[in-house]
Amino acid sequence: MQLTEGKPEPSQRRAVIAGGRGLIGRHLAHGLRSAGFDVTVLTRRPVEPGRRVDGIRMHTWNPHTLTGWTDRLDGADVVVNLCGESIAGPRWTTARKAKLLASRVVPTQALVRASDRCRQPPAMFLQASGVGFVGIGDDDADETSAPGSDYLAQLAQAWESCVSELGAACAILRFGVVLAPDGGAFPQMAIPFRMFCGGPIATGQQWLSWVHIDDVVGAALHVVATGMSGPIHVTAPEPVRNADFANVLAKALGRPCRVRLPRAAMELLIGEQATLLCDGQRALPRRLQETGYEYHYPTISRAVQSLIEPGARHDRHH
Predict the structure, then answer these.
(1) C-beta neighbour count of 71 within 10 angstroms
(2) Alpha-carbon dihedral angle through residues 279, 84, 289, 305, given to the nearest 10 degrees
(3) 3-state class (DSSP) for residue 99
(4) pLDDT for 32-85, tens place per residue?
(5) Which of 81, 83, 215, 293 has the fewest CB atoms in 10 Å of its CB?
(6) Which backbone phi and psi does 53 adopt, to 5 degrees?
């Protein structure tokens, strides 16, 4: 990790990422930098102003106040909001649900207020959300589908409602399950298979709307380049059943796929959060496809192979 100082070139495009230290933020920051942007990550950690880490500018912020950071947004070409605590982790108690909601709503509201107060508001705003917005089920769901009524759907709706009055053009990126080698769900999914005890979860018929991390970055850059706005499903074009995913992962690792994990066991272990693994939705990326986005990893077999074997990773962003 290298720390350097530096100022953007006068003609260089500027991007600001809140929540840039998470899985998606780390990859997107470097993707935007590779695309020619001067990138600033808003971090809650104290950092010296103007410092860069691996070429990425770091700036301290506190979403509970508009002091000390709002000038970073002034004149920015794109602001990306990825703030939100992971829905995986501790049980979804009433207190935990309140924390998940606050971790999304408070930073988003702060960014919206700051953007609207800028002398030159950001040209574009990318807001994170999830395909859980459409609710669980087996029917095809695209960006025009009605919102669902389960907990994750309600959480996504509350998150998205924060940008409804934003003055700048806003694209809402509804992420599917992001598969990456260095964090998120995939390393955890692979553990039971590596230990020779992997297999389908629950019925195995629930849909997994997934997306490779390289396509998360590629889709975001595509949205910026095309000026898209409104809800956008950031998922692969071919969702898979849980059982099919399990078979692909087992084959890639050279492991059996025989041990089914019952839903009752999941609910006993993690309660309501079992819905993350036992339920799903068939979310389709209609708008990305209609605007010509070309996927690095359109199929689950290619995606999993790239995550298991680093040499198989596509290099369009690297």
Answers:
(1) 11
(2) -70
(3) helix
(4) 999 999 999 999 998 887 789 889 999 999 999 999 999 999 999 999 999 999
(5) 293
(6) -120, 115
